[in-house]
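User: Working on a comparison across species. This one is DUF58 domain-containing protein from Pedobacter paludis. Can you predict its structure so I can line it up against the others?
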Amino acid sequence: MAIKELNLSAKTTIDGFMNGINKSTVKGAGLEFSQYRSYQPGDDLRSLDWKMFARSDRYYIRESEVETNISVRFLVDASASMNHSDGDFTKIEYARYLTACLAYLANLQGDAIGLYIFKNAELFSMVAKQDYQHLARLFYQLEQIRPEGTFTKPIHYKEIFAGTQKRELLVFVTDLYQTENEIFNLLDTLNTLRHEIVVFHVVSRNEMELDFKGYTTFEDLETGQTIQIDQAKARSEYKNKLNLYLEETRTKMLDRRIYYRTVSTDEPLDQALRDFLKQRNKLRI
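Assistant: Here's the predicted structure for DUF58 domain-containing protein from Pedobacter paludis:
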């Protein structure tokens, strides 16, 4: 039942979002002829059609249809910090729903989809394929996620680097909780493969506002360490430091040419889906 609910939720969300938009091709240089258009300064001269020039004495660019089906791999952080909740809603539940919707959208557009789950010194790997049965298996694996432990150590990353030699779109859903820069080290390694990378940084409203009603003792979900906090006194300095951290993170991602966006667990998925489509349609395999 849980699998069917996730499948139905993703389908309902994406069908409503797309609203009739389902482009699987773009104009560009390819094999299937599409149309001519007038030459414009800056166009690739190799695309000029000299036969049309001979007949009309005008310059035309020959445009073609090119398939944009790609391989999209979803990387999901399932370390214990993803159990953080805002009310009855946890980060991992939001990450699960976001990933399911993006996977459904990618599958709808004919892309191969794969899944990697990072948790407690382990890495679950699911190769990228393009068919509905594979999508159903991906939904099943998302439903099985039970966050625990710390982020996966580099010794377990080898399966990530054993994929296709073509450029892929990597979509990383994480809360970016790290102790020794391990997540950025992973991103740096992935960057060497020249893949397109999108990072969705999952946050909750109560951690953004430091608004945990009635609580003074806070526990680190991954280490078990506790700390006493007077929220009212700490809130202003906390928010200043958090904003600085988020800005520094955004700059680090930009320096690495990684698309980065924070998504709050109380935020509708619409903008995240638009961002995904933008990046997916940038990649030409």
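For your comparison, note: The radius of gyration is 22 Å.

User: Helpful, thanks.
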